[in-house]
Amino acid sequence: MSGPEDGGELALSADVLTPAEAWKKLGDGNKRFVNGTSSHPNQDASHRAALVNTQNPFAVIFGCSDSRLAAEIIFDLGLGDAFVVRTAGHVIDNTVLGSLEYSIAYLQVPLIVILGHDSCGAVTATKGAVETGEMPAGFIRDLVERITPSVLTSLRRDEHEVNDMVVEHVRQTAERLVENSPIIAAAVAEHRTAVVGLAYRLQEGRADLVSNFGTL
Questions:
Q1: Does the annotation place 64 within a ligand binding site?
Q2: Is 66 annotated as a binding residue?
Q3: Is pLDDT at 17 greater than 70 in this prediction?
Q4: Binding residue per annotation — 118?
Q5: Would you call 45 exposed, middle or buried from its count of C-beta atoms within 10 A (0-12, 13-18, 19+)?
Q6: Does some domain include residue 1?
């Protein structure tokens, strides 16, 4: 992977946002989506052309792969606004960590968002496996194993609803990012980046803050 020092991709120097400014911009976009007043910014041909050789995303969104969780729509974003990484159940692996670290080290993104949602199928499958002791086949088992700590934590708190487990899984995912990545941890400690966990409500279209590392 190339970086600034060897002629690779560069972040634009203009319009650099603080974590707090990035968080407000993301929240404003979600409010427009909830209210049905989305502006669909940065989707015209001229903006597309301006991004050919560079980009300046103000957020990296690590969310579930669920088809109802399209980040650019939920937050009313356009081309170049968000660096998006998705896996089922927003499960972390080394490639996810590498992708998120790239967005911080090379693109200087000021906000990392962990995006979970109601009725998550991966969390539901994990809940079923924990309750029955029957593990799913194939690599779905790997997803379940990685989500299991969040489900067990919820059960120890006597929280048995899937949506409560989703919130706990978002919190644990955000915490794990900061714990496991020295690059992300340093950016948070230096107030260059914040890590927030959001729980998306499918019915309302609202993304609620459930976890926060850093200054907003």
A1: yes
A2: yes
A3: yes
A4: no
A5: exposed
A6: no
* Closest C-alpha to 104, from 197, 7, 215, 186: 186
Residue 175 scores a pLDDT above 70: yes
Has residue 100 been placed in a domain? yes
- Global pTM reads 0.89
The answer to whether residue 182 scores a pLDDT higher than 90 is yes
Domain that holds residue 132: 16-213
Known binding residue 142? Answer is no
CA 136 to CA 90: how far, in whole Å? 18
Work out the end-to-end distance of the chain between its first and last CA atoms, rounded to an integer number of angstroms. Answer: 31
Cα–Cα distances (Å) from 3 to 10, 105, 110, in that order, read 7, 9, 18
**Residue 142 tokens, joined:** 């790997």
Tokens standing for residue 83: 């660096």
Give how many domains the chain has, as a whole number: 1
Any residues with CB less than 8 A from the CB of 96 and at least 6 apart, and which? 62, 85, 87
> What tokens appear for 33 in the block?
């989506």
